[in-house]
Input
Amino acid sequence: MVLLLAASLATPAMALPRYAARYGQSCQTCHVDPTGAGLRNLYASSLILPLDLVWKPRAMEKLSTFDPRVAEGLLVGLDLRTLFLEGEGNQGRIVQMQSNLYFALTLDERTQAVVDLGRDGTRQAYGLARVLPAQGTIKVGRFVPDYGWIFADHQRAPRKYLLDRIGSNDPAIWEVGGVEVGVHPDRADFSFSVHEGGEIGDSFTTRAAVRQDWGPLHLSLGASALRRARIGGHRSAVGLFGSAGVRRFTALVQWDEVREASRRERLFALEVDAWIANGWTLLAGLDYRDPDRALRSGAERQWLLGLDLLATPHFGATLVGRFYDVDPGPEIGRDRLSLNAVLHFFY
Output
């Protein structure tokens, strides 16, 4: 709790878990997937977004007439993120960060089939059965296992380096085939999955979190662990994560210790945002990574400062400046600056 309170007073850009931190709610409040991310449910797309989060909130009678339930029992959605990157020396480029089209077919009151069609062959497809006690679910198919915070920003240290020491911006690296069981009692979440890779049990992911409110202060604290089978060995990680939200301010923090063979790596991410007006959020953050704690192989700190605008219920933009402060080493680059602009169209 001391760590979370300190983080809330210190100084993600684009990390959507901040909404869960702001309201003290579970990610499944707004997403079809109980572990968060991906397709938003009707509560999020038809109520929370247009009535509360956008630049100019709308009255109920002025909401869009489009119904994401395009047919009885069929829900659709999408995420399109385009990144405009400006580095030193006026070296700019455009990167299509995300192009995902979602379908959720409700088979009966407790069972759904979800398909996520993404760019470059990225695919998720799973069945979701809400048949366990304590709002518990069973997920079978190909999905992203539940670990820590699901950062939308591909440059955040836990997102980019947790599964790949060199770093990967490909979201498909997180996707696996397997079985995930989760329970979601009031003020808590727990999930455990076993997935493809080696013998049964060689690859797994687990996550547990609890939430507590004290008046306007919303706190959460959790732990995660994973193990991925690799050719010639395994890559494993354990981590702590948490959030604090009070009135117009939220903070998220994640700390991970990663092991592969004899190498020990450390990753850390902190982000703080301040809601300055409807639709407008000021962002700040710090990432740290040490690719080998036993050697003087260098380390990197990434400082972030940005501004996020949710202009309409289906369009947003984010502008982020990054400064990379580098301790020299053979596996780390050099000090550098970059400016990122992201346009996000979604439903």
